[in-house]
Amino acid sequence: MFRGIKLFFREISGFYRFFFKTSSMEKTILFYSEHEGYYPYFEGIIEKLIGVHGKTLCYVTSDSNDPILKTSETRIKTFYIRNLLPFFMLFIDCKVCVITLTDLNQFHIKRAINAVHYVYVFHSPVSTHMMYREGAFDHYDSILCVGPHQIQEIRKYEQQHQLASKRLSEAGYYRLERIFNAHQRYTTYNPSPSKKETILIAPSWGPKNILESCGEKLVELLLQAGYEVIVRPHPETVRRRPDILKALSVRFGKFPAFTLELSVATDNSLLRSDVLICDCSGVALEYAFGTERPVLFFDVPLKIRNQKYRELGIEPLEVLLRNQIGVIVSLKDLETIPEIITKLRSESEVYKSRLARFREKYVFAFGRSSHIGADWIVGVSEDAK
């Protein structure tokens, strides 16, 4: 009760500071994040905006525990806004709003009544038409695209629905660069493999994902086979299905080789793991392209949020590449997982070169995304003057 009242007054304070105590120059550029896990997608762009362009910006988060709220960087003005967010976003008076939130103007978050240029930053390299709702990107002015597949999909969707063309940037994907660079450092300073191989289970969220379909049985099997096991649930699973995570914790929490990782803000588990077990999630592409290691996919139902996705006539990238960046395994073959992991590990060099080629083909401007994104945002902010 007391915490709720405290957070409410914290929101009121943030609301007041933004609208009445922050100068127009300081709030030219605004970033909005739903929770701490989204900062890694903004990090590179923000660093370039501050360090290269000398910009001051506002960062609004709906996570009261977001570490950004304690930053010592004077060029980042931070605000905690949660319950007041729909009202706050309706009246923002910045030039550019940068967000990873999809479905702008379709639900409770509407475009501002003021002239604001909305820039969408992807928080996954997957395609735009199956794992997102229909119309998820209709109301943005600019989109920083990960790769050519997203541009092809967005342009075809615009043509089919007779929509005005958005401004699309061949921007690349900073989160992938961050994983790749961290993995290079990790393998340099940890050249000797640990005694136990590490398996990361990181599924998507939604009905019949891996944790719902076979989570406990899979973890038990891997622990019995002598692996270290990390379970990294999607943030939506953490929010919607705490019962599943509690059951895993109760059953396996006493095992030293078991880790339940509830935050996606760090990449440590991606760096440590030898094989990723996934279903159909963007993390599979991040892991494969970032660590150049294979993925084991379970053939559970795909996460389809747009039942009309086939009308586009383009196979989603996350489906197209599944049997190229790893192997797909039926649930009925669960007991063979240790053997399949051994085979994947034996083919690691083959996967390494193949995944590097796929990264070059499907990801724009690898290593330069932060510069491109920051330049783009500065450009549209100046156009808005």
Describe the structure.
- This protein is an alpha/beta fold and 385 residues long.
- The protein has two domains: 2-173 and 366-383, Rossmann fold (3-Layer(aba) Sandwich), CATH 3.40.50; 191-362, Glycogen Phosphorylase B (Rossmann fold, 3-Layer(aba) Sandwich), CATH 3.40.50.
- 42% of the residues lie in helices and 14% in strands.
- The protein contains 14 helices and 13 strands.
- The protein is globular.
- The termini are far apart.
Name some characteristics of this structure.
globular, 2 domains, seven-stranded parallel beta sheet, alpha/beta, Rossmann fold, six-stranded parallel beta sheet, 14% strand, 385 residues
Task: Give the SSE order as H and E letters.
Answer: HEHEEHEEEHEHEHEHHEHEHEHEHHH
Shape: globular
Q: Oligomerization state of this entry?
A: single chain
Structural category: alpha/beta
Query: Do you know the CATH topology of the largest domain?
Result: Rossmann fold
Q: By CATH's scheme, which homologous superfamily of the largest domain applies?
A: CDP-glycerol glycerophosphotransferase, N-terminal domain
Number of domains: 2
CATH class of the largest domain: Alpha Beta
Q: How many β-strand stretches? A: 13
Number of helices: 14
Mean pLDDT: 95
Radius of gyration: 21 Å
Beta content comes to 5-15%
Report the major sheet. 7 strands, parallel
- The CATH architecture of the largest domain comes to 3-Layer(aba) Sandwich
For the largest sheet, list the strands in their spatial order. 3-2-1-4-5-6-7
Calculate the terminal CA-CA distance, rounded to whole Å: 44 Å
Work out the helicity level. 40-55%
Return residue spans where pLDDT drops below 50 for at least 5 consecutive residues: none
